[in-house]
Amino acid sequence: MAAEFDRDLDDLPPALRWREWMVRAEAVLFASAAPVTREMLARVVGRDCSIDLLIDDIAAGAEGRPWEIARTAGGWQIRTRAKFAGVIRAAAAVEDTSRPLSRGEALVLTAIAYLQPVTRAEVSRLVGREISRDTVARLSRAGLIARGPRSPEPGAPYTYVTARGFLEHFGLDSLRDLPDLEALEDAGLLTPGLSALPDLPLAGEDEG
């Protein structure tokens, strides 16, 4: 069946072909709970279709709508615009039970993001205090970090790395989008060695 699927649509005029590719891509984006990759979209559009231009046109059509297309985790995802969060919670009659990261959690997450793969002991030495297993467990349950390969140091402890949820949560396309560490230090937002928390979206209001 997949082999018979007409992606190129050569029998349609260019304008109609482009419109059909747009609605196909939009349907895939709406149906997916996770970011949609370029490879996924390529399965439903023709070989001559520019996926970047296609996404740009869909995004342009969303101007003024309550949703937007976000580039995240190596793909694209349709998201409700942040300003409508309260409206959605009110309609569903639910309370906002989420909480921001404590400064301690944000510091641990920042260290892991920049130094991964890194062990809990290495993070503890870096920040100058013991990092509890509970802190690591909370970040893991939130889908922000995951276990990495075992360290070659004695005892072969697990290392930790950022998970895909980290990119999705903070709207990053890849880890290359993290702010440059040296630039943060030069700007006074971060003291050398990650001993102070940067003024980044990673930080919550809760001092913890």
UniProtKB/TrEMBL annotation:
A biological process term (GO) from this entry: chromosome separation
Keyword tags: Cell cycle, Cell division, Chromosome partition, Cytoplasm
Coiled-coil intervals: none
InterPro entries the record matches: ScpB_csome_segregation (IPR005234), WH-like_DNA-bd_sf (IPR036388), WH_DNA-bd_sf (IPR036390)
Pfam families reported in the protein's UniProt record: SMC_ScpB
Record bears the keyword Phosphoprotein: no
Entry-linked SUPFAM superfamilies: Winged helix' DNA-binding domain
Protein name, per record: Segregation and condensation protein B
Species the sequence originates in: Pseudogemmobacter humi
Lineage summary: Bacteria, Pseudomonadati, Pseudomonadota, Alphaproteobacteria, Rhodobacterales
